[in-house]
Design brief:
Protein name: DUF2461 domain-containing protein
Low-confidence stretches: none
CATH class: Alpha Beta
CATH architecture: 2-Layer Sandwich
Pfam families: DUF2461 (PF09365)
Number of domains: 1
CATH topology: BirA Bifunctional Protein, domain 2
Largest sheet: 6 strands, antiparallel
Shape: globular
InterPro entries: CHP02453, UCP028451
Organism: Candidatus Flavonifractor intestinigallinarum
């Protein structure tokens, strides 16, 4: 069971950021395994199990990132990441083609949420077409988001904003990609089991948005009409 991260977790993240080389990592590998990788996997397994117990119909798998960077994509950076993340994703889909639930821990803080790293253009085109055709369901979700203060809508906007069917939907309509995210600095929550509770509750809140986006897959591509 997940019992929390610790100050040693943060120390390791800063350490690898400023000493991103094999000799330092090998000398501190046990710290990485004990204070970073193992608690992240414990957190991922518990959150995944509890969330799927509530929603057994969801076709999701749980993934935890590796600390090793792809040697083909270092671009002048060191061979190790200074952060780790967990994600709940559908299996057998192209990475990035569908939204994911995530939690990420890095030296400066942590974040969680649901969304895309970069949404496919066809998905966002379908989202706009659905809002044009039937705006009320998305307006309901937009109001629900606006009534809380934990998650915010993020993502790159088009340089030339597209006109939404209503002002309420304009922030969504203008996005090239999106995520509903929450970010915070390190806090007591990270050091306790309560973090697992918060993530399960967070994914529960975000689930209707996730399901709405997945439902777009059966819509025709409006760019071909």
């Amino acid at each position: 069971m997940f019992e929390g991260f610790s100050g040693a977790t943060v120390d390791f993240m800063w350490g690898i950021r400023f000493n991103n080389e094999k000799s330092w990592f090998e000398a501190h590998k046990e710290e990485y395994l004990t204070h970073f990788q193992r608690p992240m996997k414990e957190l991922a397994n518990e959150v995944y199990s509890r969330f799927l117990d509530k929603h057994p119909d969801l076709d999701l798998v749980c993934k935890v990132s590796r600390i090793y960077r792809d040697a083909r994509r270092l671009f002048g950076r060191g061979p190790y990441k200074d952060h780790l993340w967990m994600s709940l994703v559908r299996p057998h889909v192209e990475p990035g083609s569908e939204p994911v639930f995530w939690f990420e821990l890095e030296p400066e803080g942590w974040s969680c949420g649901m969304g895309f790293w970069m949404a496919p253009a066809v998905t966002m085109a379908k989202l706009r077409a659905r809002m044009d055709k039937d705006p009320k369901p998305m307006e309901q979700l937009a109001r629900r988001l606006n009534k809380q203060d934990q998650f915010i809508l993020e993502g790159q906007d088009y340089k030339r904003p597209k006109t939404a069917p209503s002002p309420l939907l304009q922030p969504w309509y203008s996005k090239k990609s999106f995520a509903l995210s929450h970010s915070a600095s390190h806090q007591e929550l990270l050091w306790s089991h309560e973090l697992a509770d918060v993530l399960v509750d967070s994914y529960e809140f975000l689930l209707p948005y996730y399901q709405y986006v997945l439902s777009l897959s059966g819509d025709p591509d409006p760019r071909q009409s």
